[in-house]
Prior knowledge:
The protein is an alpha/beta fold. The chain has nine helices and twelve strands.
Amino acid sequence: MIVLSSSISDIQDILIKVFQQYAPKNSYCLADSPEAQYATTAACWFPDMEKLRTLPKLRLIHSVAAGVEHLNLSEIGSDQFVCRILDEHHQKGMFDYLHWGVLYYQRHFDRFMQQQRQQLWKQHNQNYSHDIQIGIMGLGHMGGYVAERFAAMGYRVSGWSKSLKQLTNVSSYVGVEQRAEFLAKSQILINLMPLTSENTGILSKSLFEQLPDQAALIQVGRGQHLVEQDLLNALDSGGVRGAIIDVTKQEPLSISHPFWQHEKIIVTPHIASHAPMSVVVAQILENDRRLNANLPLCHQVDLTNGY
Length: 307
Ligand code: OXD
């Protein structure tokens, strides 16, 4: 039995709808229903942890997405597991979004849009993929995939992560010692890191200062990676050329937030990519089956690393 749990009411409604559509009847329930006492798995997005703690048979806390920072990992019981969704459609969708973002800067669309507002007819040199150095922070399931795809298209690609990665035609930079060297090359910086206590606030003034002049940021990690005021300052001083922001500290972004009106920022509402809902439900059902059959779980999270 799977219990559905999100403290965000819109998301809770979506979970109910997709489980109705893709899961067998009687295989899922809500946390305050009588069946919840039999639930072994919780399907979660910012779950109500207090409620979940009262469920006696709950062993698996399953994110309905790739990220798990919303699960409050420090509160997971010693006899419980955490899993997340990993899926190839999710990877492909992310690559499409990022490819669009890279082209936006590579082919100067940000400049042309600004020129149009000024009725200014001015050409800029045409960049080819081999002219562009992409830097990817986070080379896990998602970052590693997009890095290799950009490299296969002729982009110069480097990646930065906690451990050395062997990826085709991607230069791997590791740890704090190699971060400055990595940043100094990254004309387009893509953030795809999972959120941990170590990297909260990493996209800050000092990091922006280490990028090449006129670098651009594509922020698809987590809102808490970014010190928002530092980005605004870097854009206003002209050091950073522009930013595409898909995730923000507070979601939804408040209507008064300066990101909305900033001419060098494009905001999208956390839509860079999602796994298809049919896949999300299928992976959770399969992991619940495995849990109850004492089989190894798929995409289990290492609670020490936090991903
Ligand atoms: C995820 C996301 O975690 O979409 O999968 O942010």
